[in-house]
Amino acid sequence: MADHSALPLAVLSEQFAKLPGIGMKSAQRLAYHVMEMSDAEVNAFAKALLDAKKTVHTCPVCQNFTEQQLCRFCSDEKRDHRTVCVVETPKDIAAFERTKEYKGVYHVLHGLISPIDGIKPDMLKIKELLSRVNDGGVDEVIMATNPTVEGEATAMYVSKLLKPFGVKVTRLAFGLPIGGMLEYADEVTLYKALENRNEI
Amino acid sequence: MADHSALPLAVLSEQFAKLPGIGMKSAQRLAYHVMEMSDAEVNAFAKALLDAKKTVHTCPVCQNFTEQQLCRFCSDEKRDHRTVCVVETPKDIAAFERTKEYKGVYHVLHGLISPIDGIKPDMLKIKELLSRVNDGGVDEVIMATNPTVEGEATAMYVSKLLKPFGVKVTRLAFGLPIGGMLEYADEVTLYKALENRNEI
Questions:
Q1: What H or E segment, with its residue span, contains residue A39?
Q2: What is the pLDDT of residues A58-82, one digit of tens each?
Q3: Which residues pair with A169 in a beta bridge?
Q4: What's the pTM value of the predicted model, to 2 decimals?
Q5: Which of B7, B32, B52 sits opposite A31 (nearest CB)?
Q6: Is residue A68 part of a domain?
Q7: Which residue range forms the structural domain that includes residue B46?
Q8: Is residue B173 situated within a structural domain?
Q9: SS3 B144
Q10: Number of neighbouring beta carbons within 10 Å of residue A24
């Protein structure tokens, strides 16, 4: 339907298709769905987009998204502010919160070092982490980036920069996932599980 | 994160989660993605939503979506206006257009009869189809709803209403999909293929 390319439905489809994980076909389906929504519903959707973008900003301390001055972790006196968990994205925080075990605070890098994608260290919130540690009051920094090439490289890079501050730097443990089956474990995970075996 | 329920990011996530095929987890991922978009990009997205909803309406003849007075099929003199293909949704039209073989026009029902979902015949664009046929100029109506329970029931219901007008009513053929393998065909499809076998 080439002659439709500049028309409102096509424009809306293209907007949906720009979102991660939404292909052109799903985008078209979503655009058609919007047509079936009421005016009030579409207005609410558009308003939610603009409101979120306008009021949500990054916390000046940990770089997590917030609409308050400080995010709810940095402003919570009951959290352990001496332990900082470094993650790639704000949504990784939700994963840690689901464990209900972690009581420290966070630092969001907003990406991983990836020369292949042109993402250099100065494009991440690394200097904010260093100045935070430099200001004192931090005992341990937990590097909680994903166990991928970029995640490992970023964890190594950041930990080297942190060492001079005399702070303890740790990395998440890797091994067999709980409930996983040995026969389905990939060789790298199994090697890590073997290497990091604990005495019982 | 219950205490986040009325906050802008949560509101935006809920808006995404209302869209078909997007669960709460994907919705959250999309909301976070919006935070990484520029102001101009978010504004363009919100504008596309509002523009599409404002300018796109249903064609008074065939009920397809259009921003013109008549849709591009109904206003095209080169199409065969004596043959009307009846489909469930506007996106089904795109499937027929991809065949590049169908030269007739369309009629969109905007749904299928489904008592279980509370969708009654008078909620569909059936009376518009009847009045269109009643106005004359239509030789054949092709019932092109999906081969599902609801699609079959709707095709039967509509064809019964059309019979008194003396118009030819046809149904899409069902059988083995081209390129499909006999051993993977489900029994209903295979039965249909056998039942509707043609002499060669």
A1: helix A39-55
A2: 999 999 999 899 999 999 999 999 9
A3: A141
A4: 0.71
A5: B52
A6: no
A7: 7-55
A8: yes
A9: coil
A10: 11
